[in-house]
Amino acid sequence: MLKQEIEKYIPYNEQEEKDKQLMLEYIDKFENILTRENEIAHFTASNWIVNKEKTKVLMIYHNIYQSWAWTGGHADGEENLLKVALKEAKEETGLENLKVLSNGIFGLQILAVDGHVKRGKYVGTHLHLDCCFLLEADEQETVKIKEDENSGVKWIPIEDAVKVTDEKRMIPIYDKLNKKCLELKR
Fold first, then answer.
1. Distance (Å, rounded) from C-alpha 110 to C-alpha 126?
2. What is the phi-psi region of residue 124: left when phi exceeds 0, alpha when psi lies from -120 to 50, beta otherwise?
3. What residues contact residue 18 under an 8 Å CB cut-off, 6+ apart?
4. In terms of CATH architecture, what is 2-185?
5. pTM for the full model?
6. pLDDT computed for residue 112 by the predictor
7. Cα 57–10–138 angle (5° rounding)?
8. N or C: the chain end with fewer CB closer than 10 Å?
9. For residue 87, which phi and psi values (nearest 5 degrees)?
């Protein structure tokens, strides 16, 4: 199912073309690509959560990366990455009412993750094979912090998403997602 979803995805730019190719190679190469047991690379699902007007994006202040970021998490064996994305969005923001705007995957990217300590254990440098989904939420709905993962949740003007992140590697990704959102508004 995931392999077919990635195969049918039409890359938005050169970065996505290359990452799509590598993701398909990794799916064929590794049996445990959906779990963290694969310490080289594994699948994650992320979200670009926008308001109805697509003028704001909901971001969390990520405790590990110490930066404003999108929501998302590890597949942990689940092949349906939209299911993972929705679960993570709800857990990390407290939102209950999310509308899926993308017809399937909205963005593909392979992200390098530096080694870090999580829950008292060292996690080595690895790759996240990420599929992003476009979601819509009501900015009037109450949000809440998930203290073990983030220390802030807030709506940010969409054009400022690239300005508030301290993760330089995420700027081109957030910029790409913003451009795709603007194209949907036309």
1. 10
2. beta
3. none
4. Alpha-Beta Complex (3.90)
5. 0.95
6. 94
7. 20
8. C
9. -60, -45
Q: Give the pLDDT of residue 51.
A: 97
Six token digits for residue 82: 């939209």
Q: Residue 93 half-sphere exposure, CB side, CA atoms within 13 Å? A: 36
Alpha-carbon distances, residue 45 vs 80, 120, 141 (angstroms): 9, 24, 23
Residue type at 42 in one-letter notation? H
Distance CA 84, CA 152 (A): 21
Q: In this predicted model, what pLDDT tens digit does every residue of 91-150 receive, in sequence order?
A: 999 999 999 998 899 999 999 998 888 888 998 999 999 999 999 999 999 999 999 999
Query: How many whole angstroms separate alpha carbon 174 and alpha carbon 154?
Result: 16
DSSP letters, 27-95, are: HHH-TTTTSTT-SSEEEEEEEEEE-TTS-EEEEEEETTTTEEE-EEEE-TT-S-HHHHHHHHHHHHH--
- Give Dmax over CA atoms of the chain in angstroms: 47
CA distance 5 to 137: 24
- Is the CB of residue 22 less than 8 Å from the CB of residue 112? no
- For Cα atoms 90, 9, 125, give the angle at the middle one, nearest 5 degrees: 60
Strands 56-62 and 67-69: antiparallel
